[in-house]
Amino acid sequence: MAFYNRLEELAFLERQARPDRAALVVLYGRRRTGKTSLLRRFAEPRRAVFFVADAQSRTDQLAAFSRVAFSALGEPGLESTRFPDWEAALRFVASRARSEPLLLVLDEFGYLCDSDPSLPSVLQRLWDAEIRDTRLHLVLCGSYVSFMEREVLGAKNPLYGRRTGEWLLQPLRFRDALPFFEARPLDERVIAYGVLGGVPAYLERLDPARSLATTIVTEVLSRGAPLYGEPRFLLMEELRDPRIYFSVCQAVAFGRTTPNEVAQGAGLPDRGATSRYLDTLREMKVLERRTPVTERNPERTRRSRWRLSDPFFRFWFRFVLPNRSALESGDPWRVWEAKVAPFLDQHVSIAFEEVCIEHLWHRNREGLLPARYDRIGGWWRGDAEVDVVAVSDEGALLLGECKWSRNPAGPAVLDALMARRDAVLADLPGRVAEVRFAVCSRAGFTPALRRRAKRDGVLLFDLGDLAG
Questions:
Q1: Number of Cβ atoms within 10 Å of the Cβ of 429
Q2: Which of 354, 349, 392 shows the shortest CA–CA distance to 370?
Q3: Of 361, 6, 332, whose CA–CA distance to 198 is shortest?
Q4: What SS3 state is found at 243?
Q5: What stretches of 231-357 adopt beta strand conformation (E)?
Q6: Strand partners, 107
Q7: Domains of the chain and CATH, by start
Q8: How far apart are CA 294 and CA 389, in angstroms?
Q9: What H or E segment, with its residue span, contains residue 193?
Q10: How confident is the model over 195-246, as pLDDT tens digits?
């Protein structure tokens, strides 16, 4: 997998790798996000032992690690030797990091723990007794998000309190994924992101010589295609019986966003059972619980909405899973034309809102907005909704509308946005000194809206701004 735009993550790893001390870093994230590529780039200029585990027995894991370690450390005559246990293996590697830094990467750490559940305890004892006094830079990397957070980072586990740093590797943001889209028109860049999301392994399937429709049909909708069963495979790896979880995800993909709606859509008996499934999928980072940006107690509010975290999962549960019978018959183009293309703009509009929010965060960090805002996100109450709301603790408010329409946005869009101002203000404590407005539009803006925006200080962002 190629390496793209992980500069922030590389900088984090560099900060951890101080030459005068040991480090224990936990790097985790779902499969295909580029963890191994990131760590290989980080390891390139370093003296390193880089071990990628697999679903093998403890004996086979130790044998494979022994070969990798002896080869990387240049130990002549030891190539056929095997460490008897992980304590001996880790103690040997740590002994080679006493006088100079050494990087040890244990990739797919979950597989190692599956084959030897005592490994975290072994690591904890060695860290406390020996490793922390060396120059070993140890990175534990894993793809099972819930396992890494519960069994490695969790407060009840042996390694708790020992890590010097942790990083959840997320899919690429739209701005960082732009190198994959450079050959495509601006609107197709958003559409591609709205279908495939920011997972590098998925984005690498984009071929600039093919139309976007052809890419989606051949890479996602066609039986046997690389991405045809991807979400099914990922969920089945972590869940013993994924059937109900699939029903929950499909209900959310079709717009059922509250626990009661999800229970109805998934055919679950009660809200309590639904909440357990929702919470598990949230731990896995498959679902996210969203709340209005004005909420003072987000974890307690009943105004939450559930959403699939990843655009590709949204696409798959909305268009692939419900049409599996037709797709299995071997006519993906018919499914595309009848079931996907007519609803694609509606699907992409959600990702477009996320791209707009990301753009405002970027401008906020650069100091390019009317104020410095502390929170940026969506807002809703009853039937009223605003796509983007930015709130400053100092009393500044920005309301934004995101229009994924093929027609330029006109003054009516701004009027409708302004009409929701008082509803948002009613949700905010204290005095709001300034309210500003913004419109993000796929197709640009009418001359009338441009004139009015110039007169009233309304921010306008088109696709060129978002993809610039």
A1: 7
A2: 392
A3: 6
A4: helix
A5: 287-290, 305-308
A6: 52
A7: 7-168 (3.40.50.300), 176-348 (1.10.10.10), 369-466 (3.40.1350.10)
A8: 8
A9: helix 186-196
A10: 999 999 999 999 999 999 999 999 999 999 999 999 999 999 888 889 999 9
